[in-house]
Amino acid sequence: MDGTGGLADAMERTTRSRLSRFQGRLTRGKLNFSDETAGRETANDKRCVIEARVAGGDPIMVANQGAKLDLAAVAALPEKLTVLDWHIRKSTSRKGNG
């Protein structure tokens, strides 16, 4: 897809900023963008997958689709933050109880 380099850079900066509160707990992060219909224009055919690995854990992925890549990415990020918050609280709670 042409023209996604700027979007990818902007999303990487935004994602890094929003995930900064997890600094030291995340060992890897990854953003993937795709066009599910290979260039044909259909509703919600753009997909953004955000993957992060919490130290000592398995990768956690969330995905969202939208009519445009930026809409899919903007929708996926808050979901990712919620999932990471839950996962880290759960693992911290387990450690505190054991």
Comma- or semicolon-separated keywords:
2 helices, 98 residues, alpha+beta, 3-stranded antiparallel beta sheet, Double Stranded RNA Binding Domain, 45% helix
Fold topology:
Elements: H1 4-18, E1 26-35, E2 46-54, E3 59-66, H2 69-97
Antiparallel strand pairs: 1-2, 2-3
Give your account of this protein's structure.
- The structure is a single chain.
- By secondary structure, this protein is of the alpha+beta class.
- It has a single domain, classed as Double Stranded RNA Binding Domain.
- Helices cover 45% and strands 28% of the residues.
- Strand 2 and strand 3 form a beta hairpin.
- It is elongated.
- The mean pLDDT is 81.
Q: Which range does the strand content fall in?
A: 25-35%
CATH class: Alpha Beta
Q: What is the overall number of helices? A: 2
Mean pLDDT: 81
Q: What is the number of beta strands?
A: 3
How many domains would you count in the coordinates? Answer: 1
**Secondary structural class:** alpha+beta
What is the CATH T-level topology? Double Stranded RNA Binding Domain
Distance between the termini: 49 Å
Quaternary structure of the protein: single chain
CATH superfamily: Ribosome hibernation promotion factor-like
Lateral arrangement of strands in the main beta sheet = 1-2-3
The name of the CATH architecture is 2-Layer Sandwich
What is the H/E string? HEEEH
- Major pleated sheet: 3 strands, antiparallel
